[in-house]
Specification:
The protein is of the alpha+beta class and about 375 residues long. It folds into 2 domains: about 25-155 and about 320-335, Rossmann fold; about 160-170 and about 190-315, Tumour Suppressor Smad4 (Sandwich). Helix content is about 20%, strand content about 30%. The chain is built from 10 helices and 21 strands. It has helices spanning about 40-50, 65-70, 75-80, 105-115, 140-150, 175, 240-245, 325-340, 355-360, 360-375, and strands at about 25-30, 55-60, 85, 100-105, 120-125, 155-160, 160-165, 180, 185-190, 190-195, 200, 210-215, 220-225, 230, 255-260, 270-275, 280-285, 290-295, 300-305, 310-315, 320. The strands form 5 sheets. It has a 6-stranded antiparallel β-sheet with strand order 10-7-20-17-12-13. The chain has a 6-stranded antiparallel β-sheet with strand order 16-15-14-11-18-19, with no helix packed on it. Helix 4 links the parallel strand 4 and strand 5.
Length: about 375
C-alpha cells in the first residue's frame, strides 16, 4: 500500500527496555501481610538497600506495627531509617522511583491500587503461593537488583482498566465532579478506579439471575443473563477470567476481555474487543435484582437500576520488570503456575512394542494365549 496512513505499525515487545533517566533514589518495599516466612527476606532486603545502595526506603506504616518483625534484632537497628506512609491518606505520586514486591500476586495488585496514575517500575519477588506475576526468585536478590538498578532489564507494560461509576442520583452534578488530569484523561474526582486484573459484575446475594446490559461505544451489544460478567485486562485473562473459560492473552496485547460467568445460554462465548473502546455496563430495566461490582477483588459496591459502569483502557499501565524477557517470563508462568499443556510425551515409533510394529495375526494369538495363562 502506497498510503503510509494505511500501514499498521507493530511494536516489537523486545524493544520495551528499562531506562533510568536519573539514578533511582527512593524505593517502596511492599511485603505480603500475615506471612512469617516473608519477614526474614524483608529485613535482609531493606537492610541491603539502606546500607549497600544508600536508598531511601518507604514502607507502609502498618509494617512497623508487626509484633514479630519488631522482635527481629536486625530490624530494630534500621527501623528508624524507614519512611512510612498510610494507605488512603498519603499520596505517593512522584515520590517513589522504584517498587519492590515481596510475596504473591496480591502484592502487585496492591501496588497498582496505591498508584492510580503513573506507576514506577515494579520488581516482584516470588514469596507467595501462585506467583504468576512475580517472576523473580529471592535467592540471589543482590545480583538481580543491582542489574535492574543499572538499567539492564526488559519491561512488560501491563495495561489497566479505568472504571467509572455513574450513579443515577449524581447525574445532575456530573459536570461539576468531572476533572481532567495533565495528560488529558477525563475522570470523575471520586468515582474512578484503575484495576490491573478485572472488574467483576455479579448477582451478589440474590437468588435471581443477573440481567446486565452491555454497550460498546454507545451501541447496545447484548444482555448478560447468568451469574455475572468479567471485564478483564490481558493480565487478568489468567485470573478469574481463565476460571470462567476465557482464553489466556499475553499482557502486551492491547485488548479488553469480556467473559460471562455461568451464562444461561449455550452460545455465549467470551469475546475480545480493542483496547480503545468504551464499555458501558448497566442493570437491565427488566432485571429482578440489582448487581454488585468489585475492582480487583476490592471496593465492592452495589449497582442499582439506573446506574452504569463505564470501562476503558487507562493511559497508565503498570511497568513490570522481567526476570528474562516478555515471552520467556509469560510462558514460564503458564507452565509453573497453571501447568499449561502439561502431559506425558507420546512415545516415538522406535519405543513401541513389536506388537504395534508387526500387527500380525500370530502375535495377536500369542497375546490371547498369554491372557489365558495369566487367568
Amino acid at each position: 500500500m502506497k498510503n503510509s496512513a494505511m500501514v499498521m505499525q507493530i511494536q516489537d515487545p523486545a524493544s520495551q527496555r528499562l531506562t533510568w533517566y536519573k539514578p533511582p533514589l527512593t524505593v517502596l518495599v511492599i511485603k505480603k501481610v500475615s506471612d512469617a516466612s516473608v519477614l526474614a527476606p524483608f529485613v535482609y532486603l531493606v537492610d541491603w538497600l539502606l546500607q549497600e545502595k544508600n536508598m531511601v526506603v518507604w514502607v507502609e506504616s502498618a509494617v512497623l506495627e508487626d509484633a514479630q518483625l519488631n522482635e527481629n534484632v536486625r530490624f530494630k537497628a534500621i527501623r528508624d531509617k524507614l519512611v512510612t506512609f498510610k494507605d488512603g491518606r498519603d499520596d505517593l505520586t512522584d515520590r517513589i522511583d522504584f517498587i519492590v514486591c515481596l510475596g504473591g500476586d496480591g502484592t502487585l495488585l496492591y501496588a497498582s491500587l496505591l498508584f492510580q496514575q503513573s506507576v514506577p517500575p515494579v520488581m516482584a519477588f516470588h514469596l507467595g503461593s501462585l506467583g504468576f506475576l512475580t517472576p523473580f526468585r529471592f535467592d540471589n536478590f543482590e545480583e538481580q537488583l543491582t542489574s535492574v538498578l543499572e538499567g539492564h532489564a526488559a519491561l512488560t507494560l501491563r495495561s489497566r482498566l479505568r472504571c467509572v461509576m455513574h450513579r443515577r442520583s449524581d447525574r445532575k452534578h456530573e459536570a461539576k465532579t468531572l476533572e481532567v488530569d495533565p495528560d488529558g484523561e477525563a475522570r470523575p474526582a471520586a468515582n474512578s478506579i484503575l484495576v490491573l486484573n478485572e472488574v467483576v459484575i455479579d448477582r451478589g446475594p440474590s437468588p435471581y439471575l443477573s440481567n446486565i446490559d452491555l454497550f460498546l461505544d454507545g451501541k447496545y451489544i447484548t444482555s448478560v443473563q447468568g451469574d455475572g460478567l468479567i471485564v478483564s485486562t490481558p493480565t487478568g485473562s489468567t485470573a478469574y477470567a481463565a476460571a470462567a473459560g476465557a482464553s489466556m492473552i499475553h499482557p502486551s496485547v492491547p485488548a479488553i476481555m469480556v467473559t460471562p460467568i455461568c451464562p444461561h445460554s449455550l452460545s455465549f462465548r467470551p469475546i475480545v474487543v480493542p483496547a480503545g473502546v468504551e464499555l458501558k455496563i448497566s442493570v437491565s430495566p427488566e432485571s429482578r435484582n440489582t448487581s454488585w461490582v468489585s475492582f480487583d477483588g476490592r471496593n465492592r459496591q452495589e449497582l442499582f437500576h439506573g446506574d452504569s459502569l463505564r470501562v476503558t483502557t487507562s493511559i497508565y499501565p503498570v511497568p513490570c520488570i522481567c526476570a528474562q524477557d516478555q515471552i520467556s517470563d509469560w510462558f514460564a508462568s503458564l507452565a509453573d503456575g497453571l501447568h499449561w499443556n502439561v502431559r506425558k510425551r507420546q512415545k516415538c515409533l522406535d519405543e513401541l512394542s513389536d506388537l504395534t510394529a508387526s500387527g500380525s495375526e500370530d502375535t495377536l494369538d500369542e497375546i490371547e494365549n498369554m491372557k489365558f495363562y495369566d487367568v
